[in-house]
Amino acid sequence: MQITYLGHAGFCVETSRSIVVMDPWVSPTGAFDSAWYQFPCNHHLAALIQEKLQDATKDRYLYISHEHKDHFDLSFLNGLLARDFTLIVPHYRRPAIRELLADYRCRSLITFDDGQEIPIADGSVTLYIDDSELNRDSAILLRADGHSFLNLNDCKIHERLPEIRQMAGNIDIFACQFSGAIWHPTCYEYPEETYRRISRKKAMHKFEVTAKAIEAVEPRMFLPSAGPAVFLDPLLSHLNFEEVNIFPRAPQFLAYLEKRLRDSHRPEAPNIMPGDVVDVTTASLVYLVPDRVTEDNYHSYMRAYIARYEGFFRARRYDDSPGRIDLVLKRLQAELERKLDAFNLRERIDRILYVGLLDGSGKLLRVDFHRGCVDPVDAIDDEDNYYSMSAPYWEFERVLDQRLSWQDFSLTFRMRLSRAPDVYQTLVHGFLTMESEDLNHFCARLLDLEAATERIIVEAGGCRYSVNRFCPHQGGDLAQAWVEEDRYLVCTRHGWRFDLPKGGQADTSSDTIQAIELEDS
After folding, report:
1. What is the pLDDT of residues 261-285, one digit of tens each?
2. N or C end of the chain: which has fewer CB within 10 A?
3. Where are the domains of the chain?
4. Is the whole model's pTM more than 0.85, yes or no?
């Protein structure tokens, strides 16, 4: 078995009788309305992928893990001329991937359920699925020729890794995301020191979660993947040069890993470049591309990368006439009203949402969840209890024209957000990032989590506590959580911390796991 790294979360795995290409993202126009780009640049590997998928001596498969555009590169897939391969996709409740590929001409399309295994010529493929409404993602386990490759990409099923490891046996190669990819705190209006503090905390949590995943899987080699992206748009390019944010690069994580894991538990962990090849039998790199990005040449590399796209972004002209902007605001008001109508749990939200345009006009829409109405206003008048989001009118217009989903829009990072108090609310996040037709499923999922009665016992600081087993955020299994500072139970999925002596109260939201201290018997 050989594995060629394709950049970001992409891999091409070759076995004696099969080729499996995973999440190829190589389009030169990036993802999320050209907000994200591959790092290092991998556009040249499109020809290699096409060549591998035309190898008639082997069975060929192409796996798409989920619908995020840095994994599901539909423009590249549509550009493939030879399609004698089988598509592998997860079966999610939301049919977006299946609908987009419904008319795609290839040998066949296989949809997997969670944990489903299918045979291939010289082994098997198994998918593990997270379908928790706010998240839709999957991991893939490929076993062939007596070897195995577990690619978790960004799938946050860390609590399931011990079970997967027990079922799969020894894992030779393990790939996993180590870097952040979300709008908090990236797009929030924080003072610089607050931004750095939150970013540092989130980055360190991600590092620790990934280190614990490596300990659970015990691979012979770990491949850091699925990020970070880089940002070539002048509106976003400053993110590439921030000293502290949630997008650390692989060498920074590998330095952490060097200190964090004991020698006996530390696998080989190279800083791979797009085009590098791993031999699984020896768990070693057998080909390294000659031009490599290092911490020493990173800044000059990025300045040159950004310069190549200056003309591309300069050519993106927008009609910012008042009439056009007014029309977008009216359409946006109607869309937000439609989302409110579909939102069963809206009355639970105790703050006002303001949605505005970053065009200098200062125009705002005031979303009142309790009253179920959206009204134009001139200013924020709930300064102690509000959430606000502003974005360029043309980015909202792309959502309204269905060229972007709300989730894709959230990943453009071209918006500014603020909230008071600075407390996360799952319902607000869901309202802002989900399609109206998905909101009721999202609400039902939250109600199911609230209705779950299973509890577990955990120990911290010399005390024993009975707590709800599942995280109220997205249902992570707290039986696999860990304890910090002798008092906080930390969910492995997103790092939510619950203060056990304070009844299991989350430290960044109003949610709780209802911790009860048990008396010694």
Report:
1. 988 778 999 999 999 999 999 999 9
2. C
3. 2-311, 322-444, 452-518
4. yes
